[in-house]
UniProtKB/TrEMBL annotation:
Residues 16-25 have a biased composition (Pro residues). This is Flagellar assembly protein FliH. It comes from Pseudoroseicyclus tamaricis. It comes from the Bacteria. The lineage of its organism: Bacteria, Pseudomonadati, Pseudomonadota, Alphaproteobacteria, Rhodobacterales. Residues 1-31 are annotated as: Disordered.
Length: 195
């Protein structure tokens, strides 16, 4: 039997490759380092923008310095001369023009309550002169109009024979109107809240 010849092996088979290294469980250390650096840079930029916006808002608010209370005070201050002119210039004239019709209305209201008895209207001499053209009242109650020099101007007394009376004082009425008008421009006491 023949023996096989031992010949040199020239086969070019490469040795079995080494298995690849196992995949890491997460991102690489380089990636994590880059991510952390990028995030820190973005957070710093966002904080810088936020601080700049807050500073700009503070400057705008400081520049405005015009709150609702200050605006209201400014409007009231600009209205004050108008209201003063109304109270001092217009009201006395209006009250003077309304005085005679108000007296007539007062007399008619008193007469409706008790039309049997004559009424006595005591007024100042100046008011008597203003009322004289209106007398006697057409279809009105019996009325005796008396001028009393002791009665201050702007005051009238209406009396029934039973002693019931009504007083009308235009000075008080004008004072009430002046107070009402001045209350329109009254500035309330300012309160500081929250600091």
């Amino acid at each position: 039997m023949a023996r096989p010849a031992l010949l040199e092996d020239f086969d070019t088979r490469a040795p079995a490759p080494e298995p690849p290294p196992p995949e890491p469980a997460g991102p690489s250390a380089d990636w994590l380092e880059g991510h952390a650096a990028g995030r820190a840079e973005a957070e710093a930029e966002a904080a810088s923008r936020r601080d700049a916006a807050a500073a700009e808002l503070a400057q705008v608010l400081e520049a405005m310095e015009f709150t609702f209370v200050e605006a209201r005070a400014h409007v009231l201050a600009s209205l004050r001369p108008l209201v003063s002119e109304m109270a001092e210039g217009l009201l006395p004239g209006l009250a003077e023009a309304a005085r005679v019709p108000a007296l007539i209305e007062l007399v008619m209201a008193a007469a409706e309550e008790d039309a049997r008895a004559p009424l006595r209207l005591t007024i100042s001499p100046a008011l008597h002169e203003a009322l004289a053209p209106q007398l006697p009242l057409p279809a009105g109650p019996p009325l005796e109009v008396v001028a009393d020099a002791d009665l201050p101007d702007g005051r009238a007394l209406l009396m029934t024979p039973e002693g019931r009376g009504t007083a009308l004082d235009y000075a008080d009425y004008l004072d009430e109107l002046r107070q009402t008008l001045s209350a329109l421009t009254h500035e309330p006491a300012l309160r500081t809240e929250h600091g």
